[in-house]
Design goal:
38% helix, alpha/beta, Rossmann fold
Length: 301
């Protein structure tokens, strides 16, 4: 990339946004991070003003409303935050000759495919959240970098790893996780440097970026407990249909993303999620995790 290395990161207080700020700073960029309190991305005038003031080469939009079930109950908010806001950001980038990177989701797929989803598979989201995020991809435009990821976890913010560690602290707590939804857990600290590399090269189009190693939520919960020093057999498998109460938003049964665009471009893949998960759990608990086979991603436990 030529010229200044200046980036504006929206959603900078989220679990990915914080890692993006760290990764861009470490790569030598001048970073301005904004959260909802400082920039309402649904406000067109505010977005145009912020991008015009900062004058970035790149805008990375990590702001989103990711409460999947709540999106079903308030579709207008979902469309405003996940779709219309991207239109404002794209307009601001066009006015200021900035490159836009839009963070998206595996929920743009219906989950019916037998096998991992390629970047070129036709999206067919089942939920308001998924439909609004797909609209955000389209609002970003053909020149943008779109990064789809899945099952995001990090040291900051709410996610299933932090939830599981809290639940596991109660030895009497029953733990049940669905064993019929498949995806690739992705650690925010692993994802962020790839985003930096993609926007530094201004690579256009859709890129799937996830840690390796498909698993179900049940299998992932067992991994978390084992790595945190708890008995993984405390986790029981259930079907999505057995959830009480049932979830308002449908989830894709298969949301495994093939990182084909990275692979075909000769870019290095992310490591197995278990190796990254072990590091995250150590960071969250301060307790060394069992050794992990980094080739297979398996705990030695």
């Amino acid at each position: 990339m030529t010229g200044r290395r200046v980036v504006l990161v929206t959603g900078a207080e989220g679990q990915l946004g914080r890692e993006l700020v760290v990764a861009f700073t470490g790569a030598g960029w001048r970073v301005t991070g904004t959260d909802r309190a400082h920039l309402d991305v649904t406000d067109r005038d505010a977005v145009l003003g912020a991008v015009g003031t900062v004058g970035p080469d790149t805008v990375v939009n990590a702001a989103a409303w990711t409460a999947v079930d709540d999106c079903e109950a308030d579709a207008d908010r979902a469309w405003s935050t996940n779709a219309l806001a991207v239109r404002h950001l794209a307009e601001a980038c066009d006015r200021n000759a900035a490159h836009l990177c839009q963070i998206s989701t595996d929920y743009v797929f219906d989950g019916d495919k037998d096998g991992p989803y390629l970047e070129w598979d036709e999206p067919a989201p089942r939920s308001v959240y998924g439909r609004s995020k797909l609209a955000g991809e389209r609002e970003a435009g053909e020149r943008a970098t779109v990064v789809r990821t899945s099952w995001l976890c990090g040291a900051q913010g709410d996610n299933v790893v932090r939830t599981l560690l809290g639940l596991a602290a109660d030895p009497e707590r029953e733990l049940a996780f669905v064993d019929d939804q498949h995806g690739c857990p992705t650690m925010a600290a692993d994802l962020a440097p790839v985003v930096v590399a993609l926007v530094a090269d201004r690579r256009r189009g859709v890129h799937h970026v996830t840690n390796a190693g498909p698993v179900t939520w049940y299998g992932f919960a067992r991994e978390v407990l084992a790595l945190a020093g708890h008995d993984p057999d405390r986790v029981c498998p259930i079907a999505t249909a057995e959830l009480v109460p049932p979830r308002p938003a449908p989830r894709p049964a298969n949301s495994v993303l093939d990182n084909a665009a990275l692979r075909l471009a000769g870019l290095p893949p992310l490591r197995h999620h278990a190796a990254a998960l072990a590091e995250l759990i150590t960071q969250l608990t301060g307790r060394p995790s069992p050794a992990v086979d980094h080739e297979r991603g398996r705990s030695s436990r």
